[in-house]
Amino acid sequence: MVVGKSVTRVDAYDKATGRAKYTDDLCDKSALVARIKHSEIAHGFVKSVDTAAAEAIPGVVKVFTCFDVPNVPFPTAGHPWSTDPHHQDVADRLLLNRHVRYYGDDVCVVVAENEVAAAQAERAIRVEYEELPFVLDVQEAMKPDAPQIQENFPGNILGHTSVRKGDYEKAIQEPGLIKVEGWYDTPTVQHCHIENHVCYAQMEAGRVIVTSSTQIPHIVRRVVGQALGIPWGKVRVIKPYIGGGFGNKQDALYEPLCAWLSYMLGGRLVKIDCSREETFVSNRVRHAIRSHIISWVRPDGTFAARKLECFSNQGAYASHGHGVNAKGMNAFPQLYPCDNVECDSYTVYTNRPSAGAMRGYGIPQAMFAGEAHIDDVCKAIGADPIDFRRSHVMPQGYVDGFSKNENYYDTFNQVMDKGLILSDFRRKQKEYANQTGPVRRGVGMALFWYNTAVWPISLESSSCRMVLNQDGSIQMQTGETEIGQGCDTAFAQMAAEALGIPVEDVHPVSTQDTDVTPFGTGAYASRQTYIGGFAIKQTATLLKERILRYAKELTRQDVSLLDIRDGKIVRTSDGRELMTLGELATEALYSLEHSEHLTAESTYQIKNNAYSFGCSFAEVEVDIPLCKVKLLNLVNVHDCGTLINPQLAEAQVHGGMSMAIGYGLSEELKFDAKTGKPLNNNLLDYKLSTFMDHPDLTVGFVENAEPTSPYGTKALGEPPACSGAPAIRNAILNATGVAVDRAPVTPHILFDRFTEAGLL
Amino acid sequence: MYDIKALYEAQSVGEAVSLRLEHPDAHIIAGGSDVLIKMREGKLAGCELISIYGIDALRGVALEDDGTIRIGSLTSFSHITKSPIIQEHINVLGEAVDQVGGPQIRNIGTIGGNTCNGVTSADSASTLLAWDAIVELTGKEGVRRLPIRDFYIKAGVVDLHPDEIQTAILIPKEAYAGYQGHYIKYAMRNAMDIATTGCSVNVKLSADKKTMEDVRIAYGVAGPVPMRCPTAEALAKGKAVSAEVVEAFGQAVLEDINPRDSWRASKAFRQHIAVELAKRALQKSIELAGGAL
What we know:
Chain A is α+β, with helices and mostly antiparallel strands. Chain A is 28% helix and 24% strand.
């Protein structure tokens, strides 16, 4: 059994030694450099552009403006394409924009022979604007007199969906109910992957080849084709190793523009390499979502009715759009089922950077609001946060009517049991009960709801190809992308297990090249280990059948008596090793009697989805006079099914917990209210938490095998980022009695809240 | 790729002075941890640079015959922190500069650059101010020395003549002998950050540890340049060590400081933190000096 073992990452040595090649390493040094001139107003129209000075700078090849691009709107979201026009992504993008909709929008692009000339030219461009009023706040943007941002969306509402269950209005008439109401804000944050988005494009034989730091090469191919108005087969996208994505690269970013530039320049090699400042503003961000929750609680602690309104700040362009907020909203009635529920989610255009996919896809926002609210309910009625959750949380056996997801196990209680032990919660809860000093400690926790992959909202399929080498090893290709999370390794383990060969004999082809890689939609929705497993198992089974059929020819034993074990053809009746797989493969290739290249390829469409639940427990020390929170401990417990590679799984959780720490305590992209200008789009002023801000991270797993998966696995990519922030917020509440209504809980916020509470 | 028009490398102080005179528009670059960032942002794009980084004579910490601590202007933060002279006589300076950026920045960044920038948030500045440091400047006329508080003119501007480079920071014996101090950097995270406010306090106690013979306090980011707090210092000087004096000292800094409202932090928040830091830094300094509240 190699599944379940912490085998070394297949790319560990190359990445640790710097041998691994990323997009910029692969780009030929002759590449022309493109630099984008971004809008310096938040909203308006470009009246004119003066490029004369820029074009006169030595080394400048060409300046393109918003007046030069084709008027072909295209969508950018990294969703599988829908052949149903009603389910297609909103096409509201052009390559460059005359109607600029946020401070940082793309207005012009300089192509030059080197970075210095490109930068000089970008500064030399003069843009004249007709300025329009702008709006940054989501609810302000919903007002009748708000500036209108997208022509096809009057009122700025990109999406509005609802959930109705029972009769909320009637239920709240019940006498004796306690009303608990809260507003909760989550911030605009950015993914901050270490490798900024970079891509380069050139033409060959009438086709455009784009190499990009992307999570979704096959989707980018389609979007480039759409944006340029060329057949999709004329586009080839190559995805090498990438330095993280976290959802930002689950969008077509500058690949369409880069491809167009090459096309306009006779196929010359052109590179777009985003700066960190651009990555913060002109790529994608996480939706800031404001949630309004009302719970009507009976004196016995049960819910009579619950209501949620959530307002998602989309920014200027649709990108992933309403799907993010809708996912968060749909978690609400499921996590704590209640007979009478009303939910409304709105996704609203504003003059901010476009929000797209980011690790958790609406769930970190929903869990911050929802789990902070649960602790507020507990405070209001004097309930214990653990006991209350145990009484109300989704029970074992719950089935969601839409997705048909089933909660097969008593997961929530199991992860809480484990988390209580790992965090020593009960002892600390007692110890911190009656503090009065300036420095106080507290403990808090939060659950999270998550579901794997995108079925039944979108397509779920995976394709895999396996090719047998002369020595009995295989190359394996899938459309699923390695983005640092370690899927190449997990897939190698799955393939080795299914084929009966050593894991070292599986060579995953890490690079996706849409010309040669089987179709797959890429890394998102924490889907790949679950989804990829189906195609790997099926393809391995196909290959194994072909190998054993060939083995029958060589050994004259019936296929039913043959198996592959540890890379050897074995007669199962007596366990005798008949030959090695390498001997078979060499014979199969070079045989003068029957030469055959043993390969297999298949697609598996998945019409299932799987819940993946867990929780976080936090312990904080709050220095009230300094308005500072020190995170002393953070524990995450996950039920992501059977672990494929425990060490990689734990590392994945560490990364998500780290994101949750920043989300809870320090990270926020800020904007100047007067101009809409981003204020802190760099890693000094944007307070990504550092190693020094982290406690030791503790990870626990409850391994309930997922019955729908051939390997018993389900989501772990995004879930680790979902519950840490509300757990920290609830620990601060426990320590100080102050219920903070927004993330991140910065010293500035605590100064205000502690002052209001009379603690300062 | 940086947009640099020309780079002139000085091998000696004399050569640096000559280059300054020959290229009056050129900027001085030492470790580059500020200059290169500005160039990347386009602020100094296309400028000429005079590099003084190769002048090894400006590196190192030494104790002069009269007890003056001499810190060559090119001494890196990490070398200051590890210097036995600093550790013995003015350990707080080593602690303060150990909070600059991250390890790489502390290896390349210099104390001369940190002060010549003229920025209020420099981690070395408040401690140097609080210890009455002297800035040594060398130009065509020779050496000029002035108290660091006079070196700072306004935000981003220091008293450096067109022919000069800063060659050393000096701390006279009377400024450090018998003093103990503590620096608190208040920032939004525990590393890789710029101070929201920084407070450096030192104290000289009487032989019986009961009286504060002298108290000095300086802030970064409490005004446009690093600043001392004369009102608070006068209030505490000569007083008995007590919690009441520490409290009054903290409140008194509000008479002296002038933090601004900005998107990074509100004035009210900065004032609140400044008071709290003053109290904590004084208390810690008293403890380091052998006193007790």
